[in-house]
Automatic annotation (TrEMBL):
One of its GO terms (biological process) is carbohydrate metabolic process. It holds the Pfam family Beta-AFase-like_GH127_cat. This is DUF1680 family protein.
Amino acid sequence: MLKKTSLGIIILMGLTSFIRPPKSIVSNHFTKPLYFEIPLGAIRPRGWLNDQLEIMRDGTTGHLDEVYAKLKNDNGWLGGKGDGWEETPYWLDGAVPLAWQLDDATLKAKVLKYINWTIDHQRPSGYFGPITKAERDSGAVINLANCQKGEDWWPKMVMLKAMQQYYTATNDPRVIKFMTAYFHYELRALKICPINKWSDWAESRGSENILVAQWLYQKTADKSLLALADLLDKQCFAWSEWFAGRNWAINAAAHQDDKDWMHRHGVNVGMAIKAPALNYQRTGNPAYLNAMKTGFGDIMTLNGLPMGAFSADEDLHGNLPTQGTELCAVVETMYSMEEAMAITGDTRYMDALERITFNALPTQTTDDYNNKQYFQVANQVEIARGVFDFSLPFGREMNNVLGMRSGYTCCLANMHQGWTKYTQHLWFKTQHNGLASLVYGPNQLKTTVGAGNTAISVAEVTDYPFSDEIGFNLSTPKPVQFDWQFRIPSWCSSATISINGVAAKTGKGGQLVNISRIWKNGDQIGLKLPMQVSVSEWGRNSRAVERGPLVYALKLGERWEKGHDEHEGDYFSVYPTGNWNYGLSEQIVSDPAKTLTVTEKPLSGKFVWNLQHAPIEIKAEGRLIPNWQLTDGVANQPVTDRDGGYRGAVSDTLSHFTLIPYGFTKVRIVAFPVVKK
């Protein structure tokens, strides 16, 4: 399912056994990323992506602090006694990039309140965060001698990521000073107050801390930052070793008890996937690249689901399409892919990013971005209260419904980083000041390129992923020489790149194609990525229909019902209005190109991820399976034989039905059993 990259370093890592990191890290081990991020605000969304971000601005991303009491009331990150843990930083981690991507003055002013308070109230020791209980009670100020009176390391990691993004947008020198003081404090304090002193969350998620420390090292060349990253790696969960050793993946898939559940918590895993890449960056040891490849491959093999996510309800929970996936796991996995692809240049992570973004992400929120679903299910025949087949169902049975506060509210705060960070990673700079188009979507880029830092702009004009054509219109004040790299997705057998209407290069799936030339004002670059229908295999011999980066699910009518829970507020349930229990004809599996009919229509009006706006339909056929019925809301997958076919009773009548992209559905079947025609 995952193609190899042509980069020699990935081939090398496959031949290298895992080696533990050296005990001491020196600066000449540090390996620069293959690609460098563009400053926040230089990439502006356009087309359907701009519509999505404007919906978020008008919804909870732009107004969570007004509509959600936990953030609204006496917020600890503004000096109050309210939320002083992860949810305010989570929200800022998505609201900060949105403010600059849309150049929204109101939202900029809103998020700046939290940034300014945090910087202005940093303690002389370098410690930062809300006023601690000990400080309120005794008047003490947190320093190295009384670090035990501080509070959890974990939420500070998230706030550091928000600060990092703010700096790339503004170059505010206060941020560098602030981070340097904190990291110097942290390096000393961790020897007295280790990372797990207050919570396992910090111990399991230290990669977020390492990431920002190593980012700052690239700005300041302060070697103590590498020593800090090394210490953090030693004190936190040994994700790189676990991924490489493989016993972790097997045990996580085999056991669903209360022992070591933090080791298989889906959000922890989503964050940790990038840990080996960060260790490679710090040490230059290519064995870490192999650890990441092995770990990610094992996670997806044992727990992967058709929409690009892995089961995480909350734990890793196998590959049956009836398992759930937490929204936080979706957005954190996306971010890990974004960071990993910049460091490694491995196209498998670029492919994975697009798959999870265009399929798993949009289905888990409502049209107005005001309600979220804590756990989505691949084969989700209904959205309702219930236990389902989740490893953590909760007593109030609210994990599957769509609500602002249903399930844990961490996802209400954390969901905002998904689309904004995807937008931010549509472009990268190469090591020689060229451009890299590694994932795609409509946007406008302003940056500098070439030896003389010539200011250019590029309009990326496309409806991708709903179209296989991507156009790039270049504006430059003078001719300029630079390299421009284009990723060819693994699902594309052969792509064509044209310049001013003339074919310039072709490339195969899984490749990065580089064009080095003197570019001129008005150059028009076209990228054609032919999309063919295909069928992929998933848990219990089920099959999913794919085309390009999109996975297709059964189109079902929807009946929405509004409910209210005393503790978790208003929520929505969604039920299907037609038959759902179809098996897919075996002829489709054998020859999808011949047996499936694709219909496309242009995007029109304000774009929304819902049934009414789905721009692509695929006509398919199969038969109803009468005995395939819901049990406690779960559409348990029918058993098939080793040939992949369902051998139970099916309808005598051949049925025709419609598939649409998964992201436009709320209730659906995406992983079908296979039946005889």
